[in-house]
Design a protein that fits this description.
Number of helices: 12
Oligomer: single chain
CATH topology of the largest domain: Rossmann fold
Largest sheet: 6 strands, mixed
Number of strands: 10
Radius of gyration: 19 Å
Distance between the termini: 48 Å
Strand order of the largest sheet: 1-2-10-7-8-9
Helix content: 40-55%
CATH class of the largest domain: Alpha Beta
Strand content: 15-25%
Shape: globular
CATH architecture of the largest domain: 3-Layer(aba) Sandwich
C-alpha cells in the first residue's frame, strides 16, 4: 500500500510501543489453563497533546487540509472529546485557527466534567469553543460554523467527529501495517485485535488495512454508543470506502466487521461500576491508564468476555486508543469508587 500518495504530514510519535501485559494475562488466567495472552498496542503514546488514536487520523486530515490551503480547522465532539483536544493541538502545531463545537451529550452538569480534563486542554491550546445541547444536529452545526469562518474571510476545513472519514481512517490502515510488522518482528501470531469502536474510523481503518494486505486477523470492536446493527453498518461502510481509496474495496467483506455493543451501559460517556473496575484492574496489574468513555468500556468488555471463555488460548492485542486526560473530567464520578 502506497500511503505516501495521500500526502500525510508527520507529527505522530510512531511506531507506538507494542508490548505484553503480563499482569493482566495472569489476572485473566483460570484453573486448567483458560484465558488469553494479552498484548497492548500503545496508541495512547502518539505524542500530540498527550496522544491518542486521533493523532494518526489527523496526519492524513491535516495533509488534506494543507493541500486545500485551509487556515482553520472546524470539528465537533462531546464535552470530554479526545478527538477535539488532538485537533486543537494539530491546529496549534501548524499555525491554524481551530473552531470547536462541543455537544453536552451526557447531560452532566458537574464542574469537573464541563471545565476540567479535555476541556481545560482545549482552552489551553487556543481553540475557540462553542457548546450546544445534547441531541443537536452536529453536521448542521459544522456547516454553520464553516460558513461563519468563510464569511469572516477564513478558509475552513471541516473534520467530522472522531476524524472518521475515509481520509482519517487511512491512519489506521497505516497502524495495521505497523502492528503486523511489529508482530512479525516479535515472532507473535495474533489471534484477535480488541479495541473500542465509536465514530468508526479506527475500527474501519484496521479492518480495511488488514483486508487489503491479506493479514487475516479478526478485529473485535467493543461498542461505546450505538446498537450493534448500527455500529457494524457504519464500520462496514467506512471500511469499504477506505479500501476503495486503496483500489481494493472488494477485499472488505461484511463478515470482517464485528462489534459487541453489550457493554455500552446506560449510554455514551456514562460510567458504571464495571467500567471503574476495568480502569482499576489494568492500572493495578500493569500500570496502564485508560479513559472512562472508550478504552474503559473496551476493557470492561475484554474482562467480561474473557471470564466467559471467549478468548481461551488466544493471543489478543488490546489497541489502546488513549484518552486518559478525560479521567480528570470524571473525578466526581470516580471518587470513592476506586478503593
Amino acid at each position: 500500500m502506497h500511503l505516501a500518495r495521500f500526502n500525510p504530514v508527520r507529527f505522530a510519535h510512531l511506531p507506538t510501543p507494542f508490548e505484553p501485559l503480563p499482569g493482566l494475562t495472569e489476572h485473566l488466567a483460570r484453573p486448567g489453563g483458560g484465558g488469553p495472552a494479552v498484548w497492548i498496542k500503545r496508541d495512547d503514546c502518539t505524542g500530540l497533546a498527550g496522544g491518542g488514536n486521533k493523532t494518526r487520523k489527523l496526519e492524513y486530515l491535516l495533509g488534506d487540509a494543507l493541500a486545500n490551503d485551509a487556515d482553520t480547522l472546524v470539528t465537533q465532539g462531546a464535552i470530554q472529546s479526545n478527538h477535539v483536544r488532538q485537533t486543537a493541538a494539530a491546529a496549534a502545531r501548524f499555525g491554524m485557527a481551530c473552531e470547536i463545537i462541543l455537544e453536552a451529550r451526557t447531560g452532566s452538569d458537574a464542574v469537573d466534567y464541563n471545565r476540567s480534563g479535555n476541556v481545560l486542554l482545549d482552552e489551553l491550546l487556543g481553540a475557540r469553543i462553542r457548546t450546544v445541547p445534547g441531541g443537536t444536529d452536529m453536521n448542521q452545526e459544522l456547516a454553520k460554523t464553516a460558513a461563519e469562518v468563510a464569511g469572516r474571510g477564513g478558509r475552513p476545513y471541516v473534520i467530522p467527529g472522531g476524524g472518521s472519514n475515509c481520509i482519517g481512517a487511512l491512519g489506521y490502515v497505516e497502524c495495521a501495517l505497523e502492528l503486523v510488522a511489529q508482530a512479525n518482528e516479535a515472532g507473535l501470531e495474533i489471534d484477535r485485535i480488541v479495541t473500542a469502536t465509536g465514530s468508526a474510523g479506527t475500527h474501519a481503518g484496521l479492518v480495511a488495512g488488514l483486508a487489503v494486505m491479506g493479514a487475516d486477523i479478526p478485529v473485535l470492536g467493543i461498542g461505546v454508543r450505538a446498537l450493534k446493527d448500527v455500529q457494524e453498518a457504519n464500520v462496514y461502510k467506512l471500511a469499504r470506502e477506505t479500501a476503495a481509496l486503496l483500489g481494493h474495496e472488494d477485499r472488505v467483506t461484511r463478515e470482517m466487521v464485528v462489534a459487541d455493543c453489550d457493554f455500552v451501559g446506560a449510554g455514551y460517556g456514562l460510567v458504571d461500576q464495571a467500567v471503574i473496575d476495568a480502569l482499576k484492574t489494568i492500572a493495578r496489574t500493569d500500570g496502564i491508564l485508560l479513559d472512562p468513555v472508550y478504552t474503559g468500556k473496551a476493557m470492561k468488555g475484554l474482562l467480561a468476555l474473557s471470564a466467559q471463555g471467549e478468548f481461551d488460548g488466544e493471543t489478543i492485542v488490546f489497541l489502546h486508543t488513549g484518552g486518559a486526560q478525560g479521567l480528570f473530567g470524571y473525578q466526581s464520578e470516580l471518587e470513592g469508587k476506586l478503593q
